[in-house]
From TrEMBL:
All residue ranges annotated as the HTH tetR-type domain in the record: 5-65
Gene3D superfamilies assigned: Homeodomain-like, Tetracycline Repressor, domain 2
The keyword Transcription belongs to this UniProt entry's keyword annotation: yes
Matches recorded under Pfam families: TetR_C_33, TetR_N
DNA-binding region: 28-47
Keywords associated with the record: DNA-binding, Transcription, Transcription regulation
Name of the featured protein: TetR/AcrR family transcriptional regulator
PROSITE patterns reported in the protein's UniProt record: HTH_TETR_2
InterPro entries the record matches: Homeodomain-like_sf, HTH_TetR, MT1864/Rv1816-like_C, Tet_transcr_reg_TetR-rel_C_sf
């Protein structure tokens, strides 16, 4: 008999927890149904299919992550804001590997268009970059640089890719300092905007 109280939100949160435990790619409707003690069919009244479930986890994770980043950067500017942004990003990714992986997959543009979390993430990133007096297309280029730098570092760290005795936190801090220097000296496509 199906457990009472299943909702799309509860199913999504349980799927996010499962993704953190077994990996986003290993998350399945069957494993999730087992965790609730129900048949797979019981979940399909709350989610359409595995693709829908994965998108729901991605949206949940994006919201959680941007909330943490926004709280971390509130009232900060310049290098302090950049470091707060980067540290909140890294802490979330390392604490919630399955959820973080969900935020890195391609999502249907129609689903993305309806997501306040993804829009807030872009706005927050651009707000930090505007402090460096960047405008388009430099905003997009710098945003991609930050995301790829953070993602690459975090992925290597999570997979044990840093084997040198140098402390990974110290290297992270130096990377943020280097990014700050680069952003201050960005080779602008157009003249910089006023601060």
């Amino acid at each position: 008999m199906a457990r009472a109280g299943l909702t799309a939100e509860r199913v999504t949160r349980a799927a996010a927890d499962l993704a953190d435990a077994v990996g986003f790619d290993n998350m399945s409707v069957s494993a999730l149904a087992r965790s609730f003690g129900v048949k797979d069919a019981s979940l399909y009244s709350h989610v359409k299919n595995l693709k829908d479930l994965r998108e729901r986890v991605a949206l949940l994770a994006a919201g959680e992550m941007v909330d943490r980043i926004a709280a971390a950067v509130a009232g900060r500017a310049g290098q302090d804001a950049l470091a707060a942004f980067a540290n909140a990003y890294r802490q979330y990714a390392l604490a919630h590997p399955g959820r973080y992986a969900a935020t890195q997959v391609s999502i249907d543009p129609a689903v993305l268009a309806g997501s306040a979390a993804f829009a807030r993430n872009v706005e927050l990133t651009y707000a930090i970059l505007r402090a460096y007096r960047l405008s388009e297309p430099d905003l997009t280029d710098a945003g991609r640089l930050l995301r790829s730098t953070f993602h690459g570092y975090i992925t290597l760290e999570a997979n044990g890719g840093f084997t040198h005795v140098r402390d990974v936190d110290a290297s992270w801090d130096r990377a943020i300092t280097a990014l700050h220097f680069l952003l201050q000296n960005w080779p602008a496509t157009h003249p910089r905007t006023a601060p």
